[in-house]
Amino acid sequence: METSRTDTSRTTSADRSAGRLRGRLAAPRSAWRQDFTASLVVFLVALPLCVGVAVASGVPAELGLVTGIVGGLVTGMLPGSSLQVSGPAAGLTVLVYEAVQAYGLPVLGVIVLIAGLLQLLMGGLRLGRWFRAISVSVVEGMLAGIGLVLIAGQLYSLADIEAPSSGLGKIAGLPGMFADVVASSQARTALCLGAGTIAVLVLWKKLPKPVQVVPAQLAAVGLATLASALLGLPVAKVEVKGLVESLQPPGLGEFGELANIGLIGTVLAFTLIASAESLFSAAAVDRLHDGPRTQYDKELMAQGAGNAVCGLLGALPMTAVIVRSAANVQAGARTKASRVLHGVWLLLFAALLPAALGVIPVAALAGILVHAGFKLIPARELVGLWREHRGEALILVATAVSIVAVSMFEGVLIGLALAIVKTAWEASHVRLEVVDKGAGPIQAYLTGNATFLRLPKILDTLESLPQDRPVELHLTGLHHLDHACRTALENWAERHSGADTEPVKVTSPS
């Protein structure tokens, strides 16, 4: 009996060990199946977006695919965030278009390369986490401004009409654009096709779940392409040049443009906006899953490496994209293998089926980007901010309006400056309490943070005190007293201490 128990115990232990081994072997197989399926979903979502962003940016459609491929095969393999997916983003469309118009397509590679190297440097210096300190109002204002300019520009593409170059010009020219649509049957046809694309995107989530297995973006472009082909619609199609022919690596001559101050500003804008968008996307993706959290400095370096490669190839800049990342998580991705595989599928498509891009109507891609532009505008968040934090709401609006009225870089700088001023104003809260008992010295108590921002109000109150009465100024309640405020208080004390009045007694802060 004793031997039997021992054998049974050994058998049970062996079974447990075998079960654990089978579980460890099955888990990777299960993860690979999920990652494989997720990679196909992300590929189908990314394909129309890569092409649409490239066309809207004024560059060959193939360059959008190149950036998507690099985002999968290069950035996708590096540590940082395991589930978010990188590629060309609608948020950089306006900036890329302006850069290409101002400096030419070959110089775009220089801009993207230097921006990528700066991201690598910032990640190496562990500055990635500091991007989380940027005011959310500035970031949302930046996205809202991008969305407004993107919508205004793509409305022209919906009707196959060339858009003005400036943000204000796009908005001001909309009435004339609609007049042209009324007068042109071809423009009306393109506009109807683009509007149908937007309708599919909006209504797709209301269809039965089995239908929604097909990504909305792919369905919208596919249906628009099918309608255009079957009905023989006279609308503009995507121009196809070929993958290799589209690549324009920067030469040594293009690097000479770095002496241009305006180009330096563009590089800084690319770096700031791409980094902020990627790291804010990472924070959003982390909330969608229970897996490993993002390592922000490593993720910034991964984005930098991807952008450096894109720059060397003369392709579009990349960021992490929340649409593709959310699709990746929702499709059940478990590891970074899904985003690497999505890059493989993009590469195979670009290598084997590049001519398929030539049948896609430009109006359909414009519809996708108009829809994406509306999603960049945080309308609900703005209403909530206005109710609870009006200062933050004003910063959001001011940033968005500045981007539309001036440019991307200046608009973001204006937003950051306003956020800093607001923070400084709130941090300089100070209270001055005057106690006058009718006899004896007047007592003045300063509490809080005394800075030059509040100095006029402090001096107005102190200078209104009776000149013939002694004063005691208590500063022990101050948490901070800056040099300008201290000097001003000392000068006031000297002026108030006349020949017939006792000197002002000042109790300094500890």
UniProtKB/TrEMBL annotation:
GO terms for cellular component: membrane. The chain crosses the membrane at residues 36-56, 103-121, 133-156, 216-238, 258-285, 344-374, 394-421. Keywords: Membrane, Transmembrane, Transmembrane helix. It is found in: Membrane. It is a multi-pass membrane protein. Residues 33-399 form the SLC26A/SulP transporter domain. It comes from the Bacteria. GO terms for biological process: transmembrane transport. Its main location: membrane. InterPro entries: SLC26A/SulP_dom (IPR011547), SLC26A/SulP_fam (IPR001902). This is SulP family inorganic anion transporter.
